Amino acid sequence: MAYYRSTVLVSMDPVSVSKGALEVKQQLIRELASHNLSGEVRVLNSPRLGDPETEGPDILVYPEGSHYIQLTPATVGQIVMEHFIKGRELLQYKAQMRDVTDEELGEPKEKEIRVILEHIGKIDPRNIEDYIAVDGYQALAKVLGEMSPEDVIQTILDSKLRGRGGAGFPTGMKWKFARQSKDTPKYMVCNADEGDPGAFMNRKVLEGDPHSVLEGMTIGAYAVGANQGYIYCRAEYPIAVSTLNTAIEQAREYGLLGKDILGFGFDFDIEVRMGAGAFVCGEETALLASIEGNRGEPRVRPPFPASKGLWGKPTNINNVETYANVPKIIHRGLDWYTSMGSEKSKGTKTFALAGDVVNTGLIEVPFGTTLREIIYDIGGGIKDGKAFKAVQTGGPMGGCLPVSNLDLPVDYETLGAAGSIMGSGGMIVMDEETCMVDIARFFMEFTQDESCGKCVPCRVGTRRILEILERICAGKGVPEDIPLLRQLCSEIIQDSLCGLGQGAPNPVISTMNQFLSEYEAHIYNKRCPAKVCRSLISFEILADKCTGCTVCARNCPVSAIHGERKHTHVIDPDLCIRCGICKQVCNFDAVVIN
Amino acid sequence: MIQLTINGQPVEVETGATILDAVRKAGFNVPTLCYHPKLVSYGSCRLCLVEVEGARTLQPSCVVPANNGMVVHTDTDKTKSARKFILSMLFSERNHFCMYCQDTDGDCELQQAAYDEDMTHWPITPAYKPFLVDASHPDFILDNNRCILCRRCVRACTELVGNATLGFEERGSGSILIADNNVPLGESTCISCGTCVQVCPTGALIDRRSAYQGRETDLTHVDSVCMDCSLGCERVVKTRDNRLVRIDGNLEHGFNESLLCSDGRYKPVSETRKRVTTPMVRRNGQLEPISWDEALSAISAQFKAHDSSEISAHISPRQPVEALSAFHEFFADHFKAGQVALLGHDQTALASVKLAAEIGAFESEISVLKDCDAAIVLGVDMVKDHQVAGFFMKRQAMQDLKLFIANSTSTSLGEWSSNKIDYIGTDYPAVVSLLRGFAKGETANLTEKLQQLGLNPAHAEKVLGQLKESQKPVIVVGNEFARLDNLQAFRDLVLLAREIGAKVVTLKGKGNNFAGGLLGYEMDAQAKTAPVFYLALGDGHACEHTLEAMSGSEFKIVQSSYISEITDAADIVLPCTIWAEQAGHYLTSEGKFGLNQQAIQAADGNKSVLDVLEVLAGKSGLTIAETWRDSVQEKVAAVVLS
User: Which of A265, B110, B142, B306 could be a cystine partner for B134, CB 3.0 to 4.6 Å?
Assistant: First the structure.
């Protein structure tokens, strides 16, 4: 096959043609021929590339992705001279990018490197040309034009890209297995279920830079040998679904999706499928079951999806962020990519920083950045000058890391060794006023609710653990609860069918290991040191601070506070429900928690 | 073949076998609950976990395929603690107070699993929300409090029966077994096949009529074959103290793979008719009891007093071949009676026999329905009349079976298939001509032909095309199609089947119709009135035509197990044994002999049809040969491919 060093797409829609696109194209061909470039630069017809009314006739030059607009046969010569001979873009005819503000994503902090989040807020996700203008689809053109599927897989292997969904499995290996499967048809699936509470990294990418995912999937499909892809997006992300559908439509219009992509003879199309409110459908085999229209229950592996996935056919599943990394790796190269990150984990990772830090929100850092750097340098430290207590990473299956782990470089292996997991990137920072037993209870409540119920250990085991934790938080714990919890946790991890059950006890185990004294205080002393567990605390008004302003009494929802104006008020402990409103509204710091 | 090691012992298994298969072949065992040999393994109870060297986690042996070089340990500290853990979790999940449960002490797999682990009490106190018991179904009760959520019933209802009535609602610890969209079982799409009850390991689903009447070990098990329709499903009749307790499927033998329908499982144990207890004779308009001797002598006298052409003899297809053969020999060969007919007037067997005589044997066994990918079904409603064969088709319909159904009434056979043609009518010659034409590639008047049959031409043509591409097509015919007056179309159809490599199955209506056809019974004409009418009804039913024909006779003899308007109209009534009180063979639609063994002893005074014939023969100075097996056997080979 002949290798062109450049391909020019010329909009040939009716509007552009009426403005003279044919003449522009013919002139272009003549100019190229006069410089002996016909064998190096290919000229193709294309559906509309931009907005023909305001920009036509226009052309798009690959691999640079330069979009030249409002051309005439006269200006074509200039472009050929500048762009193809001298190798620089002719800015006066280049389409300008539009700025789209995104309130959720602030400017990057010093220690951040934004790769996945780079374009969010800078490009209009509903306008494919913006993506193209920032080098979008150049990787795809390079892959289809110059690389074999094996080349692509080798590149991804060499990049050491690891699955960003949480397991951290080398993506190159996953694609290799799918490629090796002989059965057809093959499928490419994107896991956009993002069920971790508080995590919204994937949502940002789907809403703000959807084409990066489409491009990554298409490149992966070429590598693996698939012609159909599905994006399984949780139904709670309607904007993301809509943005994706728009992006897919536009990509199809531009010949970047569908039949004969970019004229290279490769077919690949993508459909969006929606979830229905089940966290467990983020587990890959449950996700596939859901796409098939069945109950979202995981199944035992082997066989793995790479050999028997959707409808029993070889299927490759990757997370949104994993796919979004692919075009960048191909386009900017291995040296660039592997220069970021740690020894075992290359590249960057997005995190959703939440909890008691000054700066919450999405961040993106190279692997190897320490927790301290993330929490203090980027996160701005703990809010209100309180003390750091723990950081929970990885979502509901992750563990809590105390102060002693603050200098841990963030990496799949290091987090695992410390008793937590990377997960999809949730990071919840907790200050001294957090009760770790309550945290364990909170996460177990979540996983208990989301358990699919297929296997006995997870379905019943998490329920028993939750009951024990609830009892402890209610002040009804007994000494036997601790060894019983340990036993239940270890059995559930050992015996469960899927990752949900295998990970559900992690918050309990890590908090018991790191903060056993808090459990013991709840059980033996019926005390909650962090003053959180409602049954174990009481609210009191300090006589020497109370001015009798009556604000608290007026705001108490259960009328538990009595007192006359200008006299010390008193809280009736039998009526008090420990909601904390009185403490919030008091202007004199007179309300304390015991 | 795969070689692996179980507890230090090398063992070899077929490719595709699971670790559990290998464990059992090596002579060891692991406990299971959600596993069932007839169902696709589900891997949810986790009781079968084993240690596999090199594996990151414990492996569920019932699902994981055995691999070369695997080293497996079944009884390690980890696997034993896992089993205790799983069981203690199950016991804590719902109400497992064994004392009141019908399955206790022998029939409960959960209880047995606990005993096997030397458990003596519940390690964790149960905490559950009580469920209401669903007692809305006439044949069984669902008690969700006993359910261990193994889903064997759900899987059976879909995988084995193709009905998909049972399912699960909610998730996690709120999961619950439901019927349809959570309606009471008695109001659901349940077809009362009883498969779910059969596979349920605990007392969550229990048979109503036999509850608390005995453990499996208290009951006597007798192998039997059903004689309701001509499929001849194998089953096991369970009795206690000479009483019918329950009928279950036969897990070891039978094309029906332990499946039964409500007619074969529940109908026989829910009989409400009253037994005839003594021979009776009509005197002065009233039926009065007489002795057997007197009754049989009176009958014999009537035979002697009339010309044989004045005798009309009828027998029920529920009677075994032994009785049918003797009956035909007695009335047709010896007496040359005016009519010797099988009740039901079902010509299917006759048509098959006649066609086979012309073009050679052509029928295949029923099991070909189990893996067909396309089916042409003409003139039979399997869902109503041959339910178990219908199960096989419904299962395939869930796997995208291509269907062409032609019947006078609509059938729900194809409800799961999106690629089907439903012709409701009786112009079978036109249907066959259409199929032949399409197979030959004659598309000239296709659209017209399709429209004439009332079909949507575009859709029908698409499905016909798919039928043509299929790899394992079958053709099923029944009594609306396989008739003597439709032989031409029948012949064309079978010849077409031979050309395209489709297997043909003929479903022959009720009970022993096939044997009846081979023995030479009249099966295509209505009952004729004659001075002497002999009706060997047994435990069957007769239609109004028979009653009408009989009412014109002067001397009406009825051999019946139950009192009915037929016995009320008779001149002599002879008490007859029911199916369970006599042994006998049944020739199934696919040409195999099934044996119904005697399960209970009849009350004194009952005689079988065969008993009475032998006495009557004796009184007429005749003997009845016992060559039924030989004479019928070779005739079967002429019709059914071996």
Answer: B142
